[in-house]
Write a structure and sequence with these properties.
The complex is a heterodimer of chains A (about 110) and B (about 110).
Chain A: E1 4-6, E2 11-14, E3 19-25, E4 32-38, E5 45-51, E6 54-58, E7 61-66, E8 71-76, E9 85-93, E10 96-99, E11 103-108
Parallel strand pairs in A: 2-11
Antiparallel strand pairs in A: 1-3, 3-8, 4-5, 4-9, 6-7, 7-8, 9-10, 9-11
Chain B: E1 4-7, E2 10-13, E3 19-25, E4 31-38, E5 42-51, E6 54-57, E7 64-66, E8 76-78, E9 87-94, E10 104-105, E11 109-113
Parallel strand pairs in B: 2-11
Antiparallel strand pairs in B: 1-3, 3-8, 4-5, 4-9, 5-6, 7-8, 9-10, 9-11
The chains are: A mainly beta (about 110), B mainly beta (about 110).
Chain lengths: ~110, ~110
């Protein structure tokens, strides 16, 4: 079983919809949970991070961590075409960050 | 300009040639990383460095060499390029405080080995 599992998509949703992106993980030692966004032909950029369980909100984005289920989510409200990108979940282990393979998201105008 | 820069952006090389990818950061971050990104595999760590003159292997180090004589530079060398090393290579850096959650990535080098 891979440490971090993420559905590669692609996921296509109409503009204005709520988007839900998810990852599962197997290592209960993970403490920091991150979401990176990667536009085409660019490097990943940190979008949000959460320490331990719970929710964190930043504008239209909400990150959610459920450590009991080993499941993390990123919600995007009022999605915009500019949100079209690949979203990578990530978690830390031994001073290194382990990345999911990324989910490609297309927001349709 | 402040930030992390990679060069070249695109490179085509022949099998068996040595090629060096450059990475330069201006934040004086202690940690630097090299990843490769391939369809179906995501980001895989090649090598990382905790400080100047300290480097360590990641998940896929075979065929690669790194050095870090200065804090701001972390070049990656493919000693004898193979087709399987065709990939997009990303350099990243992090300060000690952000190490658990916050890497800053460069824009990548797209390498094709023919």
């Amino acid at each position: 079983q891979k440490e971090v599992e993420q559905d590669p998509g692609p996921l296509s949703v109409p503009e204005g919809a709520i988007v839900s992106l998810n990852c599962t993980y197997s290592n209960s030692a993970f403490q920091y949970f991150m979401w990176y966004r990667q536009y085409s032909r660019k490097g990943p950029e940190l979008l949000m991070y959460t320490y331990s369980s719970g929710n964190k909100e930043d504008g239209r984005f909400t990150a959610q961590v459920d450590k009991s289920s080993k499941y993390i989510s990123l919600f995007i409200r009022d999605s915009q075409p500019s949100d079209s990108a690949t979203y990578l979940c990530a978690m830390n282990r031994d001073d290194k960050i382990i990345f999911g393979k990324g989910t490609r998201l297309h927001i349709l105008p | 300009d402040a930030g992390i820069t990679q060069s070249p952006r695109y490179k085509i090389t022949e099998t068996g040639r040595q090629v060096t990818l450059m990475c330069h950061q201006t934040w004086s971050h202690s940690y630097m990383f090299w990843y490769r990104q391939d369809l179906g595999h995501g980001l895989r760590l090649i090598y990382y460095s905790a400080a100047a003159d300290i480097t360590d292997k990641g998940e896929v180090p075979d065929g690669y060499v790194v050095s870090r004589s200065k804090t701001e530079n972390f070049p990656l060398t493919l000693e004898s390029a193979t087709r399987s090393q065709t990939s997009v290579y990303f350099c990243a850096s992090s300060g000690v405080r952000q190490l658990d959650y916050g890497y800053t990535f460069g824009s990548g080098t797209r390498l094709t080995v023919v």
